[in-house]
Specification:
heterodimer, A: mainly alpha, B: two-stranded antiparallel ribbon, 14 helices, 10% strand, elongated
Chain lengths: 333, 396
Amino acid sequence: MLPYVIRRFFHLIPTFIGATLLAFMISQLVPGDFLTAKALEPNVRQETIDRLRAQYGLDQPIMVQYVRWMGNIVRGDLGLSFSSNQPVMNVIRRPIQNSLYLVVLATVLLWLMAVPLGVYSAVRQYSLGDQVVSAVSYFGLAIPNFFFAQVLILAIFLFRGFTRDTFGYTGLLFPVAGMTSNGWENFTPWKQFWDIVHHMIVPGFVVATAGIAGFTRVLRGQMVEYLESDFIRTARAKGLGSRSVTYKHALRPAIIPFVAGIGALLPSLIGGAGLVEIVMAWPGITPRLIDAITRQDIYVVLGFLVISSLLLMIGNLISDLLLATVDPRIRFS
Amino acid sequence: MAARKVSDVLPVLPPAGGPTSKTQARIVWEQFRRHKIALFGLLILAVMYLMAAFAGFIAPYGINEYRRTPVSAFMPPMTIHWIDPETGRLTRPFVYEYVSDRDPVTRQRVFVESVEGTRYPIQFLVRRPSQPYKILGMFTSDLRLFGVEEPARIFLWGTNNLGKDVFSRVLYGGQISLTIGVLAVWVSLTLGMVMGVIAGFYGGLVDDFIMRLVEVLDAIPGLFLLIVLATLLKDPRNPLAQAFGLSMTSGQTFLMIVIVLGFVGWGGLARTIRSLVLSLREMDYAQAAKALGSSEMRIMFRHLLPGTASYVMVVLTLAIPGFILAETGLSFLGLGPSEVDSASWGLLLRDATARGISIQFVPWLLIPGLPIFIAVLCWNLVGDGLRDAFDPRKRR
C-alpha cells in the first residue's frame, strides 16, 4: 500500500507544476503590473518605479518570475497581497476554510440522501416512488444552483410572512445571508458552532442538490444492473434475506464508482458552491476571488488557484486510495 | 488467363426495390420517436429557439428601452383584463394604466391599477418606428406582435430596477443564453476531437503530453478558471486583445465567452474520444486502411473519427445544458455579455440580487430563472432520449 501512495504522490508533481504554470500564464493577461498605476502619479519618479520593478523582480523574463514564484510556493510563501499589504496566505486562509465547510456538508448530505434514494428506486423499480424520485432528479439536475438559492430565500421570506400573520412570529426559519449572526464573537463556543451550522443548512443543501440528483440516477442504474445479475440470483437462491442481498451484494459493487468519483465531485461542488456563496453572502472563496481579480490583486488570485488545485489533487488522491481499499479487485502493482 | 473482375468475387447486390437495410440515422430516429418525453423536450426546445430568433417581434419593447418618467421601476406584472367590468361580458383584452403610490406603512413605492382611468386595449401587430429590431441579425423591422397605446405601457412580467420590461428582456436574453451553449459545445468538440484522436492514434509521448494537459486543466476548478479568464479577457487592455487589436465590443465579448467556455470544457471529451480511438485503431478496417497506404490524417479523420460519432452526439447533447448553466452562472456574476447592449438570463437574475433589494418585494425578478430551468431540462431529456436511441440494448 505505502509504495502505491508514494507513487501516486509523485505522480501529482508534474500536474501541479502544469497547473501552476497555467495559472501563472493566465495572470500575465492582466494589463500592466501593479506599478503601472504608480507610474501615473506625478510625484513618483521613473527611477523609483524602475528600482521597485527590479526589487520585485518584475523586470525579469516571465519564466524567471515563474521559477522564483514557484520556489517560494514550495517554501509555503504565496507572495504578498498588494491591496491589503499582507501575506497572501493570511488573506486566503479564512475564505478557503469557509468554502470547505460548505463542501464537506454538501458531500455528507449528498451521500446521506442519494444512497437511500438510489437504492429505493432500484429495488422498487417503476413504482410511484421511483417515478417521483426520477422526476425530482431531473428537476435537481436542471435548476441552476444560484437560481435555486434565490427561490429558497424567497420561500423562506414568504414563510416568515405566513408565520408572522398566523403566530406573530417574526424570525426567519433559516438565516439567508452570511455565516454568523450579529454578536457571534460573544457567543459561547457551543452556540457559535450551532449558529454556523444553522447558517450552513440552506447553502449546503443547495450545493448538494445537483449532485444528489445525478448520484441517485446513476446509482439506480448500477443497482438495477447488479440486481439482475447471476450472483444476486444465487444469493437469493441460497436463501439470503432481501436486506442482505440488497445492501451486501448489490449495493457494494454498485457504490464503487462513486467512491472513485469523490475526487471528481469536488471541483463541481466547489464550483457549485461558488455561485451559492455569492447569492447567500457566504464568506467563501468565490466572493473573495472576484474581489481580488477586480482589484488586480494578482497574487491573491494565484493563491486561490494554486491552493484550490492542490486541494483538488489531494481529493483525487484520497478517492483513489479509498477506491483501492474498497475495491478488492484493485492491486497495487 | 483473363483476370477475374471484381464483380465476380463480390456477392451480387439485391435488386433495387427489394428489401433494403435501414441506415443508422433512420434506426436512431425511429427509436427516438418512440421516446415521448424526449420528443416533448425537442418540441419545447424548438419553440424556445424560435421565440429567441423572433424575440424582437414578440417582445413589446426594445432590449434596453426604458423611460424615466413616469417612474416605472419595480412594477409588478400587470393584470390583463378579459372581462368588461360594466357589462360582465368577454371583451377585447385591455390593461389599465398604473399609477405609483406610497405604501402608508412601509413608505415603499407601490403601483396600483387606476381602475377609474382610461382602459388601454391591447393592440396587435403595432409598428414602433422608434424601436427597430433585427431578426437573425439580418432583417430590420419595427413590427411588434402586441403593444398598448402610449402613454400606457404593458409589462407582462413586471419591470426591473430601471423600469425595463422583464418579459421583453427574457426573450432577448434567450438569444444569448440559448446560443452560447450550443456554440461553446462546438469549440469544445473541435478541440476535444482533434486532441483525443491524436492522443489515441499516436499513443506514446504525444498521448502522455495531451493527457497531462487535460489533467492540468482538470486540476483547477472550472468555475475559478472561467471567472479569471472571463474577467481578464473582457478587459480590452489585456495583452491578447492588444495583440489582435480587439476593442472587446459586445460581439467580441460574446465570442470570447464562447471560446473560454469551450476551452475550459474540452478535457472530458478528449479523454473519451481517446479511449474510443484506442480500441477503434485496432479494428480490421483501420488496419486495412493502413495496409492500403492511407495517410495518417486520412485514417484518423476519415476512418477513426466517424466511429466515435454516435457516442459524440450523445455526449454533445448532454454537454449543452452544462454550458448553458456555465454561461448563465458567468453572466450572473456580471462576467458575461455586458448589461448595456445585450441581455442574458443570468444577467437578468443578477437584477434580483442588486444591493438594497429584498426579493420578497420583487419576486417577478426571478422569472428569468424559469427559462434556464426549462432549457436545461429539455436538453437533458433530448440527450437521454438520444442515448437510449443509440444504445442497441435499449431497442424497442
